[in-house]
Amino acid sequence: FASSVAGATNLLPGVSDTLRGFAKRGKADDGDDDGDVATDTTPKRKPRSRQSTVPHAWFTHFYVLGVLVNLVVLAHALQVAADLVTGGNTEGTVDGNPKTSISITNEIVSATRGALVTVLFQIHVTRRLLESFFVTKHRDGAQMHVVGYAVGLVYYVVTPLTLAAPETLARMRAVLMNAIADGNAAAASAAYGQTVTSFGKTVWAFARTAVHGMYKITTSGVTYDSSQVKGLANAFLNLLNPRATFVLSGSLLFAIGNANQHACHARLASLRKDSVTSGGGSGSKVVESRGTDKSVPGSNPTTHYRIPRGGWFDLASSPHYFFEVVLYVGLFLCAGAGAVTRLAPMLAAICANLWVSAKQTHVWYGKNFPEYPKGRYVMVPGWA
């Protein structure tokens, strides 16, 4: 969040430029920056902070990772909720005191809400993965910074864990600790009699322990019987009373955000298809003429892009980012007040990061397309 704010507001000259360079991708990373001036013989040179890039199409890796990680979390989330609603996980303490009926009820609500949020997030990342395969059309040569790529990978590992209920994380932590203990014992047995200074064997033993732990946390103890499935279904239904306002409104916002974001992505993909096939025809309603900027001789980035037209794009430059915020707000509402402390920082970081990207896109369009509509907002239709 702090880095996004610093990049957007230029609070730290030099550092802010570097942060914006890390965040750029796609059209915004085509080398169209203020700074080095191109001449007829010298093409514009990218800043050093943006010389280490990877293909923009690698965005698909984020969604593959998100689907896999969230599936593991989802399996444990459903198991925890099923155990609680069927009375199979009522032992232990809360803040050092034995569990009471009230604390158990609170645990059931927390675990069930967490499971619901994890189910919804699985729907979202699966949709994004399918879009990456069948809808999104990346321009050949489009890039993103390797730092942005690494941050994206970390994000899709951390987000499922952040959205998960504390009860789910406690179960996963317990499974992992048991697996590590078992793995350490196995590794110690395998390494018995070897010299302590054998670095290679030490690394091998650590790798075996790590793999064993991940295998256990993925597969250990995830089983459901018919009574648990029925109890879990009833627990989801119980969320509607007296919490219907938050759960229903959150689910509705999530659905609206996903549906509209998909529509925006499909419209952007149609621009790419139309720009490849022809300059007009049946797709002319959603495209605009190519840009005419000649500031980069022989390497005009605007010849690869068109101005989006129609739908939410008549109101904002990046409405798909706005609807991403909408769907995350929906998840926030579904999670409930008990999740505010862990989800609020994540939501703030998402908003800040998307705003920086939307602002870069808005500025890029205005610079490269003189005919770009002046009345369009940056990201939020009718507001900003």
Describe what is shown at a glance:
The protein is mainly alpha-helical and about 375 residues long. The protein is about 60% helix and about 5% strand.
Instruction: Please count the helical segments.
Output: 11
Indicate the percent of residues in helices. Answer: 55-70%
Radius of gyration: 25 Å
Encode the helix/strand succession as letters. HHEHEEHEHHHHHHH
Number of strands: 4
Strand order in space, largest sheet: 1-4
List low-confidence stretches.
Answer: 4-12, 31-44, 192-197, 276-303
Mean pLDDT rating: 76
Shape: globular
Largest sheet: 2 strands, antiparallel
Strand coverage percent:
under 5%
Distance from first to last alpha carbon: 19 Å
Strand pairing plus helix content: what structural class? mainly alpha
How would you describe this structure to a colleague?
The strands form two sheets. Strands 1-4 form a two-stranded antiparallel sheet. A two-stranded antiparallel ribbon has the order 2-3. The protein contains eleven helices and four strands. It has helices spanning 2-9, 15-23, 59-85, 101-134, 146-163, 166-190, 199-219, 226-238, 244-277, 319-335, 340-368, and strands at residues 53-55, 93-94, 97-98, 143-145. The relative contact order is 0.13. 61% of the residues lie in helices and 3% in strands. With 384 residues, the chain is mostly helical. Strand 2 (93-94) and strand 3 form a beta hairpin. The model is unreliable at 4-12, 31-44, 192-197 and 276-303 (pLDDT under 50).
